[in-house]
Amino acid sequence: MIPEDLILGKTAYLVRHTHWDREWYLTQEQFRTRLVRLVDELLDDLDADPGALSFMLDGQAIVLEDYLEVKPWNHGRLTAAIQGRKIVCGPWYVLPDELLMSGEGHIRNFLAGRRLLAGFGSGMDIAYLPDSFGHPAQMPQIVAGLGMDTMLFWRGMPNRMAATEFYWDAPGENGHILCVHMPHGYGNSAHLAADLGETLPRMEHLLDSLGRHGTTDALLLMNGSDHITGQRDVGAVLKALNEQLEGFHIKPSTLEDFVAALRPQLPPLEHYRGELCSGERSMLLGGTISARMPLKQANSRVLTLAERYAEPLLAAEKLLGGTADGADSLPYLWKRILENSPHDSICGCGIDEIHREMVTRFERALQLEVCLLEDAAGRIARQGARPEADGEQAVLVFEPVGGSIPEYAELEIGLDPVLVQKVNYTRSVIEDFEDGISHPPLPENVEVLDEDGNPVPHVVLGREKAYRRLYQDHTMPEVYKVNQMRLGLLLKNRAPGLHKLRVRPADGPAPEAVTDTDTPVLENEFYRLRLEGASLEVLDKKTGRTHANVAQLVDMGDAGDEYSYSWPEQDRVCMLEGAADSWRRSESPVCSQLEWRATLRLPKALTPDRRARADEAVDCPASFTARLYPGLDRIDFTLDFENNAEDHRLQVRFPAGVRTEVSESYSTFHIMERPVEMPVPADWMEYPQNTHVTHGFVALEDGGRGVCVSADGLTEFEAVQTEGETALCLTLLRSVGWLSRTDLATRKGNGGWTIATPEAQCLGRHRFAFSARWQDGGWRNSNAFAVMEKHRLPAFLSPQRTGFDCPNPLGFLEALPGQVRISAVKPAEAGDGVIARFYNLDTEPVAFTLPMPQGASAAGLCNLAESWQADLAPKDGRLSRTMNGCEIQSLYLKC
């Protein structure tokens, strides 16, 4: 706490610190060598002078691991310094990009930081987020739910907020936190020269500015910046300054001491609600939402597999009384995912080398997730094992969403397994038996049954003799010859959680897809699609309205850099023109699809002066697939695109059929409304763009009619006004060749260092997945969010070697009302139960009851940090719940 010494006038609390980007204009290992020197210097200074000033190692704890991986023998010295508050860090594991991180990712980031800091006995409990490129609207509820009440930040503050202190309200009636804005950034007092002729006027100007914007007599000075060591002579400089300054006293401090002094002095403060994503006072660097899009797609993939598949499957196993052994690997998995989450990493605004390393990290995380999923599925099946009929194979199905939403899924299953290779340990050789076996012939068809014995509609997509390796802990791999069948299934009416299919050979001809190239038309009960040129004309049968130029590719020049999009002075818009190069249609009882190929001619690059797009053009082949399914009001698309052009931005466009002034998109536990055309203030650091972040759902509508789109790992959208209607554009690629430049039309100043990054042009082949749906009556009233969420969260199917009974301990989640969405089902950090978390999409309160889950012995409410808050007593086996509009709520289920 602040010593009770008498200080006249205002007190400026100076925090010695560094802001540590683990990778940016250097690689992680190159920066680590500098980190090691920094920490060594701090520890040596403490050995020489135990009274040395405190130093903050940023708001992240991973830097401690980074240092100790090189010098593990200094663990004791580092721990003593942290426990003595001479070195301070946390509360986060990494400093993430807040807009691109999922809501659950923010929570896991805090939990990982808390676990790490617990081993050192101390950590900061202030939400220090100094350099994130914007802050989502739900951050107040997240910060408060993690047990903190104060946040410090720099970027994103709009001009209309004059004071440095204000209350940031969460959406709905869900509380607020104290926010402290750093108007001059987190390096306002870096490198204070010993020459007072230089430093005194600099400090007087800074203190005057802070004093005019602050609401108390406590001001914050940040003595540090990116990747710099502690200023060793700062104590002497402060002593000299304090002898010269009038009306101010500068006190070496920590952020905790500053906040402790600030809070008692606070007057009534202004309240702010909404996201902090303004580029008026500092560069927001909004182009990072779409720079190096393949990284965003990989990030979405690993986050989704962890949050909505691996964790829930392990939680289900725990509720069934199983060991859930894989839960012990979740902290390690999350660390690997979080390593790619800092803003200079996942934002794609660094040198090429670090983004190559990120690809490897994503692949490692994906490998572990697949192992966790398959292992958990196998343990659940073995736990309920029972014999199946001869020739029959069981499939465990995990459903992450639920609801009465039909779903097309593809299953590859190996029937009739016969051992053909195994290790002979006596001879230390691999023995092959294939010449001595008789393998059953390939079946023409199969029968697929659900857990109630009902037939599952399907088609046979392929069949062949194949080999499968079986991995077991007690022996080396065994190889089996199988009759491999690839099936397309139409799954229906499943609650969230565990289900079962049975597959067995069947007589009679196999249902197959029929192809033709006569009429480029596709339809189900909701839509009729016709290929017109190289895009679609869509008849919405629900309304009788026709939408032209659906899934049209739109390409513009990009004279920006990894940080910011910037239009060239003389731009050219390019679209697919003329007829498609080729097309074909495929019809089946479970899925119908229309495929077409076209060639997009694009300028090869910008002209040498970067003012226009070059005359020389290159071919960029595009291959589309549009799919319709029986009973499903949604059109699914995949696009394979070969990018052979540089310096451009590629989008895919969907007409809304209405004109609207507002877009709605899902981002971090919340549907965010924004104007279609952003107002442009008289003064700005970065020009306000109409592109915004999305976590997979965007809607445009007016009077209940409009379009909504699901984007699988595509993180940026734009709403644009066209002739008579508004169109929704998903960004597919931003191709740029520089980390930063000084010649952008959309930004004042350099965002970083002027370094060439040719791999950020994203040349080569890409695959994109997205889905569209038109509605009449409003997306909130038509189950649209769930239907579109199902596009991104398909069922997980895992063939098993044994039959099994399949109770579903997660079936209680089916009782959630439609506006309340599942966010997480995970093993509790304490290991004694399961956390189930939901969020209310609606702005209105909602009441509901849930069945007491199977396997749960007690239930309670907890906060996001998993601290028990209140007991919940079931009545007649049910839990009664109410949720505010936009509320995040967590249940703790003891088992």
Question: What are the salient characteristics of this protein?
Answer:
45 strands; six-stranded antiparallel sheet; 20% helix; 895 residues; ten-stranded antiparallel sheet; alpha+beta
Topology:
Layout lengths: L9 E7 L11 H21 L6 E2 L5 H9 L4 H9 L3 E2 L14 H16 L8 E3 L9 H7 L4 E4 L11 E5 L6 E6 L14 H18 L4 E6 L10 H11 L3 E6 L1 H8 L8 E3 L19 H27 L10 H9 L4 H4 L5 H32 L9 E7 L7 E18 L4 E4 L12 E6 L7 E15 L2 E17 L5 E10 L7 E3 L4 E3 L3 E6 L2 E6 L4 E6 L1 E6 L16 E2 L6 E6 L4 E12 L13 E12 L6 E9 L4 E8 L6 E5 L4 E5 L15 E3 L3 E6 L2 E7 L4 E6 L4 E10 L28 E13 L7 H9 L3 E5 L19 E8 L5 E8 L5 E6 L6 E5 L5 E5 L5 E6 L4 E7 L1
Parallel strand pairs: 1-8, 1-9, 2-3, 4-5, 5-7, 6-10
Antiparallel strand pairs: 6-7, 11-17, 11-38, 12-13, 12-16, 14-17, 15-16, 18-25, 19-20, 20-21, 21-22, 23-24, 23-29, 25-26, 26-27, 27-28, 28-37, 29-36, 30-31, 30-33, 32-35, 33-34, 34-37, 35-36, 39-40, 40-45, 41-44, 42-43, 42-45
